[in-house]
Amino acid sequence: MLSLAALAGCASRPINPPLQAYDPTAGYRPDTANLRPGTDQTTVMALAFSGGGTRAAAFSYGVLEELRRTPIVVDGKPGRLLDEVDFISGVSGGSFTALAYALHGEQLFDDYDRRFLKRDVQGDLIARVLSPAQWPRLASGGFGRSELAAEYYDEILFAGATFGDLVARTTPRVMIAGTDLSTGSRFGFTQNDFDHICSDLSRVRLSRAAAASSAVPVVLSPVTFNNYAGRCGLQDSESVAVQLALAARGARLQERIREIALLRDSAQRPYVHVVDGGVSDNLGLRAILEGLEALETSGETRALLNVRNFRRAVVIVVNAQSGIRADWDRSETPPGSIEILLQAAGVPIDRYSYESLQHLRSAVERWNAARELDAMRARLFGQPEGDAVELKLYSIDVSFDAVADPAERDYLKALPTSFVLSPEDVDRLRATAARVLRESPAYRDLVRELGGASAD
Fold first, then answer.
1. 203 Cβ contact list (under 8 Å, min separation 6)
2. For residue range 329-353, what is the model confidence (pLDDT) as tens digits?
3. Which of 112, 83, 108 is nearest to 172 (CA)?
4. How far apart are CA 11 and CA 28, in angstroms?
5. How far is CA 234 from CA 27, 227, 322, in A?
6. CA distance 397 to 436
7. Max intra-chain CA distance, the chain
8. d(Cα 88, Cα 170) in Å, to the nearest integer?
9. Residues whose CB falls within 8 Å of the CB of residue 421, separated by 6 or more in sequence, listed in order
10. Do the beta carbons of residue 66 and residue 446 sit within 8 Å?
11. What does the mean pLDDT of the chain come to?
12. What is the DSSP string of 162-195?
């Protein structure tokens, strides 16, 4: 027993390093990245990958495959729509596909299914947790099941890569999100977010971000980060998020500022415990919605982003939300404790996801209506052409609800939220995602605008 306690005392979690000095131009930031070279520089495209374990990872991978198969024309040269993707937000299961593509690029399409999607990740993790060799480490105060999972993800997918390894890559910038366990707010894995805790994201492993974003409460342990806020010279007036909020006065941005203020209180919160991102934002849409709010309500933001240089902005939401069966009302016997727990956790997440989608659609409709009104005024009153905003917004929904066959739709929604699926189910999810995207009217319009045709 004494030797076991000694070994447990030696085990410790990885420590995220402090940021020596705040520099808004350094590190892995979505707002400092240029659009990918060789692409249509008037188009900006973002993908949002939802949570949902392997189900979500496979569904989002199917969208990447379809984008890769979709030909377009850029400056008279043939291209692929996949190359137009500039940003990917990922949550929980969707974070694995986002991070893997950002790291591996084209190589992802050679072996992602073998290395991750069709592997019994869940079984392997359970075996490690149950292995006596791991018990001393797991018995320590800082090293939990999610840290063990992060080591495993490095072995099969990330090979120890950090966010610093992504800075120079020409793949899309990824925005991975977990949930701050204490406040229930989004905890983002970009340097913009890590500035608030004065930590250097470039030395944080991708595997820890994936582990945190998928750390289902109770099943997996929180991933803990040291909070060094107040030690890197970051002032409130220098925060991009604060600037946008003061300019836009938007409700979502104001709420985000309140969340950041709580995060910056390192005296009361020297540590931040992060769990599954699906708890706060299962569609990975919150950061995108905040950006759209700033774009819609703030002239300063539109000028900062050089909106007049763009013709179209595209958001493709890849939603692998399952269906929760609730047929208990047919029986006098109420559901058991596990069913109640799953229902209590799942229903609020589903409702919040629905509201996020509606907010996105409403924002897109308002923007495009205002854009058309500006164009009409220009035609009627001779408004100088340079004063009109040409940017058109696209919102494309790829979800199980778009599957026409009721039996197929119900089958896909019934797939478990786990990290193991049969190879047949993985391939079925990939094919369905591709078909739903390909058949979307908004997607077809986008492809036509870019001089291509969706793959048959």
1. 16, 17, 162, 163, 164
2. 777 677 665 455 555 455 556 656 7
3. 83
4. 30
5. 15, 14, 41
6. 9
7. 86
8. 13
9. 54, 55, 58, 117, 118, 415, 429
10. no
11. 86
12. BGGGGTT--SPEEEEEEEETTT--EEE-SHHHHG
Q: How many H-runs (helices) and E-runs (strands) does the chain carry?
A: 18, 10
Pick from 110, 51, 38: nearest CA to 78: 38
- Interstrand relation of 173-180 and 271-275 (parallel, antiparallel or unpaired): antiparallel
Q: How far apart, in whole angstroms, are the C-alpha atoms of residue 53 and residue 344? A: 19
Structure tokens at 416: 């478990």
| Cα separation, 360 vs 288, whole angstroms | 9
Would you say how long the chain is, in residues?
456
Angle made by CA atoms 438, 43, 247, in degrees to the nearest 5? 120
Cα atoms in the Cβ-side hemisphere of radius 13 Å centred on 128: 19
Report the 10 Å Cβ neighbour count for 310: 18
- Whether 321 has a pLDDT exceeding 70, the answer reads yes
Question: 403: which 2 tokens?
Answer: 């599957």
Which H or E run includes 293? Answer: helix 286-297
Q: Are 414 and 325 in contact (CB under 8 A)?
A: yes
Q: Please give the Cα distance from 213 to 277 (Å, whole number).
A: 5
Quick one: tokens of 415? 């797939």
323: left (phi over 0), alpha (psi -120 to 50) or beta: beta
Q: What is the CA radius of gyration of the chain?
A: 22
Which residues share a beta bridge with 43? 312
Rounded to an integer, what distance in angstroms lies between the CA atom of residue 71 and that of residue 14? 43
Tokens matching residue 67:
């984008």
- Confidence at residue 360, expressed as pLDDT on a 0 to 100 scale: 87
Tokens of 35: 């659009």
SS3 186: strand
What number is the average pLDDT over the span 23-36? Answer: 86
**Least trusted range by pLDDT, from 48-52, 169-173, 297-301, 376-380:** 376-380
Residue pair 274/236 in contact (Cβ under 8 Å)? The answer is no
Among the listed ranges 4-8, 197-201, 253-257, which one has the minimum average pLDDT value? 4-8
Q: What is the C-alpha separation between 185 and 277, in angstroms, rounded?
A: 9
- Reduce the DSSP state of residue 417 to 3 states and report it: coil
> In which residue are the tokens 């703030």 written?
298
For residue 169 the two structure tokens come to 């890559």
Q: Which two tokens stand for residue 21?
A: 């000095």
